[in-house]
Amino acid sequence: MKNKLFLLILLSSWAVGAQSTWTADKAHSKIGFAVTHLLISEVDGNFDEFEISATAGDSFMDPSFEVSINTASVDTDNERRDGHLKSADFFDVEAHPTMTFKTTSVEKTGDNTFIMMGDLTMHGVTKPVTLAGKVNGVITDQRSQKLKAGLKLTGTLDRTEFGVGEASAAIGSEIDLTINLEMAQQ
C-alpha cells in the first residue's frame, strides 16, 4: 500500500511539472523593434518571417524559447530604408540570412512576470541578451481545445555590439525590443 501511495505521489508531482511544446501563432504574434533617428524621433519596425517554439509548463511561467528570424523580412514601412537595412551596411542578409535566440535561463520575478536570459546570434555574433517577460494569461482555445498563452517580452540591445551598422548620431545604437506572442500548446 505504501509503495502504491508513493508511486501515486511521484506521478502526480511529475504531471504538475510536465513541460510541453508550444509554437507561435504567427497571425497573433509580432517581433518588433524601435531605434532613435537623428536623436529626436523613433523609427519602429518588425520582422515578418520567424519561427518560434518553446518548452513550458501549463502556466507558461518557465518558457525556454528557440527562435529563428529571417533577416530579409525586416519591415519598417519604407522600402528604401528596408533595402538599406538588408544591405552589407546593416543586416547583410545575403551573408547572414537568419538571426537566432535560445533561452539559457528564466527567473520568476512575480505572479506573472519573469526575467529571461538567452543567447542572440545576429550578424554572425553571439551575445547574451536579457528580456523582461509578462504572461498576460493562459486560456483553453474553444476551437482547438488546447492551451494558448499570451505574453510580452521587452528588452534592449546595442546593435553595434553585433556588428550591425556603425555608431552614429543619425541612427541610435540602442534598439528597444517589443515581442508580443500568442503561443499554442502542441
TrEMBL record:
Stretch forming the signal peptide? 1-18
Coiled-coil intervals: none
Q: Which UniProt keywords apply?
A: Signal
Question: Which Pfam families would you find in this protein's record?
Answer: YceI (PF04264)
Positions of the Lipid/polyisoprenoid-binding YceI-like domain: 21-184
Q: Which InterPro entries match?
A: Lipid/polyisoprenoid-bd_YceI (IPR007372), TTHA0802/YceI-like_sf (IPR036761)
Name of the protein in its database record: YceI family protein
Its lineage reads:
Bacteria, Pseudomonadati, Bacteroidota, Flavobacteriia, Flavobacteriales
